[in-house]
Amino acid sequence: MSTELGTRPHTVPAFAGEIAGTLAVHSQYVLHGNTRDRFLVSDGGAPQIMELVPLLWHVLRPAGFDALVTYDTVAGLGVYPATPEGHRAVDQVLGANVLGRRPSPERLRAHLTKVVGTAEQPPPETDNARPAAGAQACGAQRPAARLAFVVDHASRLVRSPTQLDQAERDQFLFFQKLALTAEAHEYPDRPRALHNPVIWLVEGERDLPVWFTAGGEAIRTVAVPMPTLDERTTMAGLLVPMLPPAHPRPGRITPAQELAGLTEGMALDSLFKIIKLALDRGLGADRVADATRIFKLGIDDNLWRRGSVREQITTGQRVIAGRVLGQERAVGKTLDILKRAALGLSGAQASTSGHRPRGVLFFAGPTGVGKTELAKQVAELLFGDAQAYLRFDMSEFSAEQAADRLIGAPPGYVGFEAGGELTGAVRRRPFQVVLFDEIEKAHPLVLDKFLQILEDGRLTDGQGVTTYFSECVLVFTSNLGILRTDRETGTTRRLVEPNTPYPELERSVRTEIRRHFTTELKRPELLNRFGDNIVVFDYISPDVAARICELQLDNVVTKVYVELGIELRLSPTARADLVRTCSSDLENGGRGVGNLLESNLVNPLARELFDSGAGQGDLVEVVAVHPGDDERGPTLTTRVTQGGPR
After folding, report:
1. What is the pLDDT of residue 14?
2. How far is CA 411 from CA 159, 204, 206, 397, 550, in A?
3. How many Cβ atoms sit within 10 Å of the Cβ of residue 536?
4. What is the CB-side half-sphere exposure of residue 475 using CA atoms within 13 A?
5. Which of 51, 57, 110, 274 is 20 to 30 Å from 293 by CA-CA measure?
6. Each residue of 549-560: pLDDT tens digit?
7. Which positions ≥6 away from 599 have C-beta within 8 Å?
8. Is there a contact between 148 and 199 (Cβ–Cβ < 8 Å)?
9. What are the beta bridge partners of residue 185?
């Protein structure tokens, strides 16, 4: 591949230069992290793209190395580069006919001692074994060639780094002693005294026993980081020209810059696969965002681009207003945010916003006023499916270790195999509404996970799998600003009342939210991520409470008929008394209406139906409702007509 990026200085990834520059003092290296990626190398001209083993050869060859010996438990021993010179160098050190074979653990240890140049391990003692006269172990000697031994998939050498069996412990004790006793060697035509290193390639820093890497300075742990934005931009500049060209659009970033921004936190190899996917789907350079989304989510159909979503949002204000009563301001602002999300303009002011969640809503206000119900309606509105709604009660995440429930336990801990509740659900269904109810009750460490989601649009679970939230709508709810509890005395006082004017209530709620995140939690950066997406709900008014009660009365009548086959009628007086009684608890909103209706109608009605023996086809009329007192609960006066009205 060619590029128009121009001439560059001689550069290699920093971790590779670190190895090449410290061979005089370190005999083993543990490379962890992004070891399966491709890497950019420049020798002054156009960048070259290399995998890890060729990159290691690229930095070790100038130091006088003759070849790399590669090993893993499946492929056995190999050589890089696979040239006659490379084969000859390995044969000089290890002997003939070893390449292409899988050595036993004992033979592997013998090969390592030959490459490093230390004394071989003595054979195990047996009951009748006696050393021969004058026998002695083969001592250390300089290897015939300068080699490095690369152990790939080293994480798979042990079942668990914290629970080694006897053979695994002895194996790694040998490897550690090998590092501590190794010496640097000089060669006649290469005056620098350098180690012939053993290089372990692992996924995680703790994949090998901790005591092995912490046993001394002879073993150096080196992180292989994810690529930077500059590296992704360079790689994208090499790859995007392979696609059909994009039509120039003034003021827009180039497709290469767009691809680099969309792949934050991803490997350079992922860019290769995105371009390959785009070529396979016939997507041009102007559709790298679509190719990236398909690669991340595995879904070709973009639900946000369906015409039905726009139509549903257009008609949604009328539909939602009939289901979430008395919250016209909150519903209007919510729909404005959803319109922005549907058009893909969320975070449009940022240079790279494509990886953030599609929409973020923070519903705040009194309890029982429709915050959770509106989140459900948003799910049905956007995706036509109430099941596209995932709810987490944050009161269940108040403990420090609760974050593991969201992303899964780390390796070695109970629950690791199960994965995370949040990450797993979003991977299975990338297009959905995720509700985090009563966010103020979550532990601060759980909130840190939300910070990563809001900023980067992704989470990596305990199994190392990355989940993307770029197509989700995230809804947070909170009761902050209504009550405040004094931590010292434990007393609770009300900050606003049901008759508080909405502007004053909104100001109180926003002030309390700001105080909670900045002063109490000391996480103002999380509040900044919510931005202007805070939607404040009002108390329901007496008229709205009465309408809610009327709707719930109709629900009771319908439920009795569907479940029992009994026709339930309420006299005008009984209905009016119920509406007046049940709409009096404005502090608890619609939930308070429902609770009072259950106490004053549902419970005594169930008692009357049970005691009277009313059955299918009967008519039950509620003539009067009698409030309860200190000695007895509410009662009803009913009239039962068997067989229905006559």
Report:
1. 92
2. 12, 10, 10, 21, 54
3. 23
4. 28
5. 51
6. 999 999 999 999
7. 628, 633, 634
8. yes
9. 194
- Of the two residues 644 and 24, the one the predictor is more confident about is 24
For CA atoms 44, 46, 47, 53, the dihedral sign is negative
**DSSP secondary structure letter of residue 631:** S
Q: Report the alpha-carbon distance of residue 221 to residue 591 in Å, rounded.
A: 57
Q: Which amino acid is at 230?
A: D
> CA of 279: how far to CAs of 275, 294, 298, in Å?
6, 13, 16
Tell me which residue has tokens 């109970």.
414
Q: Identify the CA nearest to 65 among candidates 76, 77, 75, 53.
A: 53
pLDDT tens for 477-530 read 998 888 887 777 878 888 888 888 989 999 999 999 999 999 988 889 999 988
pLDDT(616) > 50: yes
Whether 575 shows a pLDDT value over 60: the answer reads: yes
Token code pair at residue 447? 């909130």
What pTM does this model have? 0.69
**Both tokens assigned to 8:** 């560059």
HSE-up of residue 43 (Cα within 13 Å, Cβ side):
7
* Residue of higher predicted confidence among 45 and 103: 103
**115/89 Cα distance (integer angstroms):** 11
| The pLDDT value given to residue 633 | 85
Nearest to 392 by CA among 405, 378, 373, 374: 405
Whether the upstream peptide bond of residue 81 has omega within 30° of 0, thus cis, is yes
Tell me the pLDDT tens digit for each residue of 316-348: 777 887 788 888 888 888 888 888 887 777 655
DSSP H helical segments within 182-267, as ranges?
A: 210-213, 229-239, 255-262
As a whole number of angstroms, the distance between CA 405 and CA 445 comes to 12
**For residue 261, which of 351, 344, 156 has the smallest C-alpha distance?**
351
Residue written as token pair 């102007």: 286
- Alpha helices by DSSP H, 411-469: 421-428, 444-456
Residue 463 has pLDDT above 80, yes or no: no
Cβ-Cβ contacts under 8 Å for 585 (sequence gap 6 or more): 592, 593, 595, 596
d(CA 146, CA 71): 17
Asked if 526 and 450 touch (Cβ cutoff 8 Å), the reply is: yes
Residues facing residue 222 across a β-bridge? 31
In the chain, how long is the greatest CA-to-CA distance?
120
Per-residue b or e along 218-228, where b marks 16 or more CB atoms closer than 10 Å to that residue's CB: bbbebebebbe
Calculate the CA 469 to chain-centre distance: 8
